[in-house]
């Protein structure tokens, strides 16, 4: 007879570390936008995708927050000659836990060539790469949203409330006569009352026309059906436009990584609180492209110029396929429009000042969005005088809003704006 023997699980030092806390500390590293590469001048190196870089980032997080278990620290102090080995084992166990719990996916490196020995094994380990999984992205979005809403205090999530009524589950108005297509949330009282009134007003067989009476079981007719009404809650389609031109990492400041975090937080908010809404991500640079959310962690800055018009055109096309009550574009940028896609698909570029041709074409695209019923809200990470005037012109045409923010309060402004529009009644 088969038997199973169990022994006491002793675990490892890595089990004493809160993995959620560690992932939160690694968020800047996992979502970085190329700022480090620009700082050190090595644009061709992918700084954040090798296992060696991940090990260094984990080590920095452990040391900066004093997260190394006390027992392991004591062993390292008592045996200095084994300190490196113990620390490396801890890092290896933590990375294995991250992979086992589905936060990252490790790509196996090619096997070392015969005869290379230890050198080949070291090179193989340094070339091992990893990817952030959908679970990892969802977790980072949840943590970012929690941090942002925590800094806002009490906030009502709203539900796209309007002044209109519709049939639904939550009762918020007087009953209405059932019409084809309504939710069959029958108002029993109103339905029975209508049937009783109709039967009392109509004579039955064998009785005088003036003496109507009830018969059981009660005769229900189609015209007796009444349904509950609830407040009609509209849906919203959003395109989040992220500027990834080179200016987003220039001037000693990383502006693109905070924008990516806000995108993750907004996606998590919509997914968990407003499943009827939709969110698309558009990157605009020399041109524009749709970015699937699962690829957001890998997005980095580049190419160099800012083709705002092409981003708006792409966003407008995406929203044209959405059958929603509200459609909006949220644009996060820090620079003036400096590129334009011509009719023959050539890219016209001018980074010096506000080019009249680029500005004119961009504002015309803003007007097309307005005619299509699309609102544009702009979150500007710069405060140049000419740029401020341009942004106010965009808002004037599109009847949107302009927010002049910094990378540190971008998320608070954007989420407050989104939540406020959800909690306001639409008249």
Largest sheet data? 6 strands, mixed
Count of domains: 3
CATH topology name of the largest domain: Rossmann fold
- Which CATH C-level class of the largest domain is it? Alpha Beta
What is the overall number of helices? 14
Class inferred from helices and paired strands? alpha/beta
**Strand order of the main beta sheet, please?**
8-7-6-9-12-13
CATH architecture of the largest domain: 3-Layer(aba) Sandwich
Q: Name the helix and strand elements from N-terminus to C-terminus, one letter apiece.
A: HHHHHHEHEHEEHEEHEEHEEEHEHEH
What is the CA-atom radius of gyration, in angstroms?
A: 30 Å
- Under CATH, the homologous superfamily of the largest domain reads von Willebrand factor, type A domain
Share of helical residues = 40-55%
Q: What do the pLDDT scores average to?
A: 79
Anisotropy-based shape: flat
The beta-strand count equals 13
N-to-C terminal Cα separation, in Å?
75 Å
Strand percentage lies at: 15-25%
Low-confidence stretches: 39-47, 153-162
Write a short abstract of this structure:
The chain has helices at 19-25, 27-30, 35-40, 51-64, 70-78, 83-100, 117-127, 134-152, 188-201, 256-273, 308-320, 356-371, 385-398, 410-423; strands at residues 104-107, 129-132, 161-167, 173-177, 226-233, 236-243, 278-284, 288-290, 326-333, 339-341, 347-349, 374-380, 402-404. The protein is of the alpha/beta class and 427 residues long.
């Amino acid at each position: 007879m088969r038997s199973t023997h169990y022994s006491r699980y002793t675990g490892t030092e890595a089990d004493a570390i809160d993995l959620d806390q560690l992932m939160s500390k690694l968020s800047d590293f996992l979502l970085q936008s190329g700022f480090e590469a620009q700082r050190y001048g090595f644009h061709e190196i992918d700084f954040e995708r090798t296992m060696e870089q991940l090990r260094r980032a984990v080590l920095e997080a452990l040391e900066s927050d004093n997260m190394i278990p006390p027992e392991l620290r004591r062993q390292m102090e008592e045996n200095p000659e084994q300190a490196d080995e113990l620390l490396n084992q801890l890092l290896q166990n933590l990375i294995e836990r991250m992979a086992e719990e589905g936060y990252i996916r490790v790509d196996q490196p090619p096997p070392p060539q015969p005869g290379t020995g230890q050198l080949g094994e070291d090179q193989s380990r340094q070339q091992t790469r990893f990817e952030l999984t959908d679970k990892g992205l969802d977790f980072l979005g949840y943590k970012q949203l929690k941090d942002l809403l925590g800094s806002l205090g009490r906030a009502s999530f709203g539900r796209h409330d309007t002044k209109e009524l519709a049939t639904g589950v939550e009762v918020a108005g007087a009953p209405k006569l059932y019409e084809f297509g309504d939710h069959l949330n029958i108002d029993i009282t109103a339905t029975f009352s209508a049937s009783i009134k109709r039967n009392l007003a109509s004579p039955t067989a064998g009785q005088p026309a003036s003496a109507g009476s009830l018969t059981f079981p009660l005769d229900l007719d189609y015209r007796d059906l009444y349904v509950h009404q609830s407040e009609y809650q509209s849906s919203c389609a959003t395109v989040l436009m992220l500027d990834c031109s080179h200016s987003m990492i220039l001037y000693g400041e990383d502006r693109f990584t905070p924008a990516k975090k806000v995108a993750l937080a907004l996606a998590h908010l919509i997914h968990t609180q407003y499943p009827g809404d939709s969110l698309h991500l558009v990157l605009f640079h020399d041109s524009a492209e749709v970015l699937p959310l699962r690829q957001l962690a890998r997005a980095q800055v580049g190419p160099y110029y800012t083709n705002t018009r092409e981003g708006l055109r792409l966003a407008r096309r995406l929203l044209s396929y959405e059958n929603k009550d509200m459609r909006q574009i949220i644009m996060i940028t820090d620079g003036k429009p400096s590129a334009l896609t011509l009719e023959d698909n050539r890219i016209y570029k001018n980074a010096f000042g506000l080019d009249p041709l680029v500005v004119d074409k961009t504002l015309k695209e803003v007007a097309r969005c307005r005619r299509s019923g699309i609102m544009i809200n702009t979150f500007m990470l710069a405060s140049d005088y000419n740029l401020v005037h341009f942004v106010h012109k965009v808002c004037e045409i599109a009847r949107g809003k302009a927010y002049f923010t910094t990378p540190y309060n971008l998320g608070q402004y954007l989420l407050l704006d989104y939540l406020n529009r959800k909690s306001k009644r639409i008249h």
